[in-house]
From TrEMBL, chain A:
The lineage of its organism: unclassified sequences, metagenomes, ecological metagenomes. One of its GO terms (biological process) is amino acid metabolic process. NCBIfam families: PRK04180.1, pyridoxal 5'-phosphate synthase lyase subunit PdxS. Pathway: Cofactor biosynthesis; pyridoxal 5'-phosphate biosynthesis. Keywords: Lyase, Pyridoxal phosphate, Schiff base. PROSITE patterns: PDXS_SNZ_2. Its EC number is 4.3.3.6. It comes from freshwater metagenome. GO terms for molecular function: pyridoxal 5'-phosphate synthase (glutamine hydrolysing) activity. Belongs to the PdxS/SNZ family. This is pyridoxal 5'-phosphate synthase (glutamine hydrolyzing). It catalyses: aldehydo-D-ribose 5-phosphate + D-glyceraldehyde 3-phosphate + L-glutamine = pyridoxal 5'-phosphate + L-glutamate + phosphate + 3 H2O + H(+). Residues 16-220 form the PdxS/SNZ N-terminal domain.
UniProtKB/TrEMBL annotation, chain B:
One of its GO terms (biological process) is pyridoxal phosphate biosynthetic process. The keyword Lyase applies. PANTHER family: PYRIDOXAL 5'-PHOSPHATE SYNTHASE SUBUNIT SNO, PYRIDOXAL 5'-PHOSPHATE SYNTHASE SUBUNIT SNO1-RELATED. The keyword Lyase applies. It catalyses: L-glutamine + H2O = L-glutamate + NH4(+). It comes from freshwater metagenome. This is Unannotated protein. One of its GO terms (molecular function) is glutaminase activity.
Length: 300, 188
């Protein structure tokens, strides 16, 4: 087919290859879906990926019990119904669930506090996997510990299943605020930062130099409107995850489209005003004082 | 020189970094007014179905197609290559492409993320091989007579041009090596 010189060696599952997919998802919306119909609605609306799970966080919160990795049949059905990347969740520390998802060929694994933790001290050693991982964080120390375990993407945790953006804002401001301070610190102060954050010194030194995490940082937990998505982006998130916010609203399809447009045009208030019209009722949402289990506290 | 970078979704920031290293100014392009005054455009990797959808909703598709017809220099990587291809296989039925280069590409032709890979490729005009990262990459399955293949991997074209339209199925913006961006800018 071609007359130019052609090599054939290749390496899979390397850090640049895993981190590369996170880079490709920037500026996009990753939507939680529980079946093929929802996955198609998400893809039609312009989602850059879907997260396949059995119950959205709002239902996990309502039903209680132990939340686990989804049924492989359900994940296969969603993979077959869309052409965009498919992510799926495993319990914190449950490396066998992760082995299973990798065998199923999912594109990204979320080691997620929304599911019931399997290990109360250890997260998964994510370097052992070909598939990339995303992990949640409430502060910079947690983000850097996850990166030191091999996470290729960080998402601020927020409080999943609440439709309330306040926790996501708190986490984004905490992570980004500390990064700003570190860029102002002198080299001797970085040792103290590493100690305070309980994070590896080389990663702290890297932030001092670059001003940002070595992997992309997205926002999750509590996004229910186009304005919420744009708020997360203006605060510095590089993309958004929307869980219950779409399929727990009155009209998921137009809301999904509107959130996609709001994430792209996040600084253009005229476009945000236009896409915020006529979306029906958003998910009801709950206040932080009304919940008894904070998922964001899970993770060590 | 002002180079636009399509910023609807995807790895546009990484392209801006690479272009800045080549010493040119960049501008993020999200709506048609952003096309005014740019000398070239880079279309990044990301999700092609998302970008196709947003090209339509933002009203950018037709003005961009016109600028390309009028000779705007364009470099599309991965999803950007899909958006520039004449024919797209395994796309969504409503997926639109700008048909600016006479090739047929298959979306995710190299497989899912677990099959994504990195490899060295050889480019005649460059002294040392270029290290290329392929992420859920599109595979070129046909090239038209006017298309010049600049590099191939495993006998499949991975970097090609037709006139002022350049496409790569991999991501030169993901490696700290701006040689391909320079090569494109020389042609602008």
């Amino acid at each position: 087919m071609s007359s130019v010189e052609s090599s054939s060696a290749r390496a899979t599952g390397t850090y640049p290859v895993k981190r590369g997919l996170a880079e490709m998802l920037k500026g996009g919306v990753i939507m939680d879906v529980v079946n093929s119909e929802q996955a198609k609605i998400a893809e039609d609306a312009g989602a850059c990926a879907v997260m396949a799970l059995e119950r959205v966080p709002a239902d996990i919160r309502r039903d209680g019990g132990v939340a686990r990795m989804s049924d492989p049949d359900m994940i296969d059905a969603i993979k077959a119904s869309v052409s965009i990347p498919v992510m799926a969740k495993v319990r914190i520390g449950h490396f066998v669930e992760a082995q299973i998802l990798e065998a199923l060929g999912v594109d990204f694994i979320d080691e997620s506090e929304v599911l019931t933790p399997a290990d109360e001290a250890h997260h998964i050693d994510k370097f052992k996997f070909t598939v990339p991982f995303v992990c949640g964080a409430t502060n910079l120390g947690e983000a850097l510990r996850r990166i030191s375990e091999g996470a290729c993407m960080i998402r601020s945790k927020g409080e999943a299943g609440t439709g309330n953006i306040v926790e996501a804002v708190r986490h984004l401001r905490s992570i980004i605020g500390d990064m700003r301070k570190i860029t102002q610190a002198d080299s001797a102060e970085l040792f103290d930062w590493a100690k305070k954050l309980q994070a590896p010194l080389p990663l702290v030194q890297e932030i001092a130099e670059t001003g940002w995490l070595p992997v992309p940082m997205f926002c999750a937990g509590g996004i229910a409107t186009p304005a919420d998505a744009a708020l997360a982006m203006q605060l510095g998130a590089e993309a958004v995850f929307v869980g219950s916010g779409i399929f727990k609203s009155d009209e998921p399809a137009p809301r999904a489209k509107a959130i996609v447009e709001a994430t792209t045009h996040f600084r253009d208030a005229h476009i945000l005003a236009k896409v915020s019209r006529g979306l029906g009722t958003p998910m009801t949402g709950i206040g932080m004082d009304e919940i008894n289990q904070r998922y964001a506290d899970r993770g060590w | 020189m002002l180079v636009g970078v399509l910023a609807l979704q995807g790895a546009f920031a990484a392209h801006q970094r690479a272009l800045a290293e080549c010493g040119v100014l960049t501008r993020q392009v999200r709506v048609s007014a952003d096309l005014d005054g740019i000398d070239a455009l880079v279309m990044p990797g990301g999700e092609s179905t998302t970008m196709s959808h947003l090209l339509t909703t933002s009203g950018l598709f037709d003005p961009l197609a016109e600028r390309i017809r009028d000779g705007l220099a364009v470099f599309g990587t991965c999803a950007g290559m899909i958006l520039l291809a004449r024919e797209v296989l395994d796309g969504r039925p409503d997926q639109r492409s700008l048909a600016a280069i006479d090739i047929t590409v298959r979306r995710n032709g190299y497989g899912r993320q677990v099959d994504s890979f990195e490899a060295d490729i050889t480019i005649d005009s460059l002294a040392a091989p270029f290290h290329a990262v392929f992420i859920r990459a599109p595979k070129v399955e046909r090239i038209g007579p006017a298309v010049q293949v600049i590099a191939a991997h495993d006998d499949v074209p991975v970097f090609a041009r037709e006139g002022r339209v350049f496409v790569a199925s991999f991501h030169p913006e993901l490696t700290p090596d701006p040689r391909l961006h320079s090569l494109f800018l020389q042609e602008v």
